[in-house]
Known about the structure:
By secondary structure, the chain is of the alpha+beta class. It has one domain: Alpha-D-Glucose-1,6-Bisphosphate, Chain A, domain 4 (2-Layer Sandwich). The chain is built from 3 helices and 8 strands, in the order βαβαββββββα. The protein has helices spanning 37-43, 65-72, 174-202; strands at residues 15-16, 52-61, 85-91, 99-104, 112-121, 126-134, 142-152, 155-167. The two termini are 30 Å apart. Keywords: Abscisic acid signaling pathway, Cytoplasm, Nucleus, Protein phosphatase inhibitor, Receptor.
Amino acid sequence: MVGMINGGGYPRAxxxxxxxxxSSRGSGIAMPPIIDFEHARRLHQRQLTGNxxxxxxxxxxxxxxxxxxxxxxRFDEPGKYKxxxxxxxxxxxxxxxxxxxxxxxxxxxxxxxxxxxxxLDDSERILGVxxxxxxxxxxxxxxxxxxxxxxxxxRTGTTVVESFxxxxxxxxxxxxxxxxxxAVIKINLRSLAAASERLARxx
Length: 203
C-alpha cells in the first residue's frame, strides 16, 4: 500500500512505501514514531523552479539504524542494495565531490548514469547525490537520503526518507516523471529493507 500517515507526525505529502508504514505498525496498537519529523522535513526542503517536480518517500525497516546507514552511505557500492546497478566505477572515493559512473541493468530505459557525491554526513546520516550525465532524460536530478532511528512494531528500527528534484522533460508531464521516479525509489527502498533485515538476522 502507498498512502499517507495522518496524526503520526509525518508531513502530509510524504509517501509511504509499504503497508508496514501504517500508524498501527502491524500490531493493531498505535505506536507513535520517535523520529523528529520536523527536523527530517527541514533536511528535505527544496527550492523548486516551475519546471521541476519533487517527491518524498518513506520506508520503515526492521533493522538497526547503524546497519541501514552502513549500506546507504556506500556511494562507491550502490549495488549493495540497488537492483538496477550492474556496475559502478568511482573516482575519488567516499569524499564530497567524488564521481561515480553506473552501468544500469536492462530493466531501465537507459544504460548508464554519472553522479556526484554532494553530501555525506555520518553524524546526521545524510547522503546527497546529484546526476550530472547519462543517456537518460533526467536533467538537474538530485536526491537526498536520510536515515533515522525509529520504533517499528514496538522494537528498535529505522526509518529511511528519500526525496528527489528533477527537471521536467519537454514531452513528459509532472505525473509521468514523478510516477517513474517514485517507482524506482520504491524498488530501491524495498531492496534496502530486505538487505538490511537479512543482515540484522545474521548478527
